[in-house]
Amino acid sequence: MNNFEFYNPTKILFGTETIAKLDSLTPAGARVLILFGGESARKNGTLDEVKSALGDRPIFEFGGIEANPSYETMMRAVELVRSENIAFLLAVGGGSVIDGTKFVAAAANYAGEPWSILETFGQHIESALPFGTVLTLPATGSEMNCGSVITRRETSTKLPFMSSYVFPQFSILDPTKTYTLPTRQIANGVVDAFIHVIEQYLTYPAGGMVQDRFAEGLLQTLVEIGPKVLATPEDADLRANLMWVASMALNGLIGAGVPQDWATHMIGHELTAAYEIDHARTLAIVLPSLLQVQRKDKHEKLLQYAERVWAITEGDEDQRIDEAIRRTVAFFESLGMQTHLSDYGLDQNSIDLLLKQLEAHGMTALGEHKNISLDVSRTILEGAL
């Protein structure tokens, strides 16, 4: 196992009726900006519940954060924070709202051009406004980590950043707030969490026995509950487990001390930026082909994945790996995911554009071995047609 440092200061308040605790969590008298996405938080009463819990604090609202939060939109929020002397941010929504809030928190007092936060992947952040979250969509794990992804629509650029300054101070996770979510969003959440785990697990053996078993348990849980959470939207136990597994998938724990591979995400980001395909659905397109192309580098862990997650023990090694990839695809498709570029009307010409974007954004040496060049990315994308 590699040396590592693990730090996660986010306080989790999990369960029903936990929004009422906002009063004790938020600084007294603070000028609070509530950030949210569409109107669902208002229509289902969550926004009113949040405002009521905040009591007589001065409250401001910023809505309209996109499913892929844009730099242009979030800069309007930054301007509001500055003009109204906001002291505390509260994200009410899913990963996109939380990601956008992290950017606002970092950009509000940033000394340079805020876009450089993304260009430097957060390396020069020196402070951030404090913020908390009320999670309404389990998927990204953003409620319990220090990462964010922002899209600049002007240039179709989607980039991540990380900083210890943008851990949420607290996150409220009430599974009942997910009951009214559309099936598509829940399916996206299951796949997003699944591939978050895969990217930290399915690399090469590094002696991380604890991390491996934890990751395999999370994957098995998602396989078990994935179709069920779609079929029974108000099953409290299923929704609670989905919400918690999504947090565990990307809170830093299973990735500590082991190699990681985020090539699926980096290629997927370009698909979202260029063609506006849901983030999770881009991952379902890219991952199966990537596993095929990288099967030599991932050979030992693919066999381990086949046996421990899918109970595949028969056949030679290549057959077991093929079957593990086939079952992964079948799992995605059982959730209503399409797993080919052609399903979205994309062709070889689309691949050329994606490769230009990868090159422009410096994504030319991806994967746990940094050996996924543009040529290899082309092979992966062609395999996904």
What this model shows, in words?
By secondary structure, the chain is α/β, with parallel strands linked by helices. It has two domains: 11-177, Rossmann fold (3-Layer(aba) Sandwich), CATH 3.40.50; 182-383, Up-down Bundle (Dehydroquinate synthase-like, alpha domain), CATH 1.20.1090.10. It contains 15 helices and eight strands. The strands form two sheets. A six-stranded parallel sheet has the order 1-8-5-4-2-3, sandwiched between helices. Strands 6-7 form a two-stranded antiparallel sheet. Strand 6 and strand 7 (157-162) form a beta hairpin. Helix 4 (71-83) crosses helix 5, helix 7 runs parallel beside helix 9 and helix 11 packs across helix 15 (374-383). It is globular. The two termini are 37 Å apart. The relative contact order is 0.11. The mean pLDDT is 96.
Summarize the model shown.
With 385 residues, the protein is an alpha/beta fold. Helix content is 48%, strand content 10%.
Topology, pairings included?
Blueprint: E1 11-14, H1 22-25, E2 32-36, H2 40-43, H3 46-53, E3 59-62, H4 71-83, E4 88-93, H5 95-107, H6 115-119, E5 131-135, E6 147-152, E7 157-162, E8 170-173, H7 183-201, H8 209-231, H9 236-249, H10 263-275, H11 279-293, H12 299-310, H13 317-334, H14 348-360, H15 374-383
Parallel strand pairs: 1-8, 2-3, 2-4, 4-5, 5-8
Antiparallel strand pairs: 6-7
Helix pairs in contact: 4-5, 7-8, 7-9, 7-11, 8-9, 8-12, 10-11, 10-14, 11-13, 11-15, 12-13, 14-15
